[in-house]
Amino acid sequence: MIDLGLIRSALFVPGNRPDRVPKALGTPADVVIIDLEDAVPLTEKARTRQEVAQVLAEIHEKKVFVRLNGLDTDFFSDDLMAVACEGLAGLIIPKVQSVDDVKVINSSLLQVEKTKGLVPGRLPVIALIETARAVDNISQITLTKTDPARLYSVAFGAADYTLDMGIEITREGSELLYARSRLPIACRAAGLQPPLDTPFMIDLKDIAALETDAARARQLGFQGKLCIHPNQIEPVNRIFSPSPEEIVKARNVIEAFEEAEAKGQGALQVDGKFVDYPIVKRARRIVNMAATLEDI
To answer: Please, are residues 146 and 103 in contact by the beta-carbon 8 Å criterion?
Structure first.
């Protein structure tokens, strides 16, 4: 499967506003998602998918995904046929709820890849987990094996999830903790990339609350966050990147451990904190991520 690299921030752009796509591509978002689903009225679905197909034909410099309409709609097949192309990074599929859904997605994509002359498996999928049924089935969904491998990761959609549950999203987000906690564990157990967290929708002007929300998601094991406004990108990128302090501490840990290891020690204290192999492995991940970000 194609390695999509770091996805700290993924910015949604309405598919029926193609004029906004160049602006989105000019932001520091790691990924841009052109949306054919919620952002597009029913009466504009057919026209929008053709406009998006034209936009994709002209894009080459950025990782661009398209969110299709769901499997249970009359639009899915036509959406897929219209937008599948070599320049597309991948697809976001909404309301994936079961093993059968993953299998249907794979078979549909194989047919389209064959028709479009694409290599089988060329189009990776990030499945949106947006219902109680999907959360309940998350381990089965992520562990589903297809030929070729299709699932790259999953993402959490809190708006539809809370609608399904009959609850309200709060600033504190305690009502989302159980669902959020399930996704990173399921991805890790299945060998998928870490998931993307739901957009922060409570107050687009409250950057401090966004930062708190993103930090909570990072601590749970998410790799990044879906964004619905450009002003969310910088805070999200920052939260999901190692801070200068984290990088310095990580380098100190590695240096001290390597010196101790050369003397036959497998554990030590650094600045009063216990350090052994798992701690060093995490420190190396931080340093490697920092190096990757320097190259972006």
So the answer is: yes
State whether 280 and 154 are in the same domain: no
Whether 237 shows a pLDDT value over 90: the answer reads yes
Closest alpha carbon to 194 in 203, 206, 185, 204: 185
191 shares its domain with 274: no
The encoded tokens of residue 277 equal 């192999």
Query: Is 96 within a domain?
Result: yes
Omega within 30 of 0 (cis) for the link into 235: no
Q: Predicted confidence band at 196 (pLDDT cuts at 50, 70, 90)? A: very high
Do both 99 and 208 map to the same domain? Answer: yes
Q: Based on the fold, state whether residues 125 and 193 are members of the same structural domain.
A: yes
Number of folded domains that form the chain: 2
Range of the domain at 98: 9-239
Q: How far apart are CA 158 and CA 149, in angstroms?
A: 26
- Per-residue pLDDT tens for 247-264? 889 898 888 888 888 888
pLDDT at 153 exceeding the cut of 90: yes
Q: Are 118 and 260 contained in the same domain? A: no
pLDDT digits (tens, 9 = 90+) for 29-84: 999 999 999 999 999 999 999 999 999 988 876 799 999 999 999 999 999 999 99
Domain contains 2: no
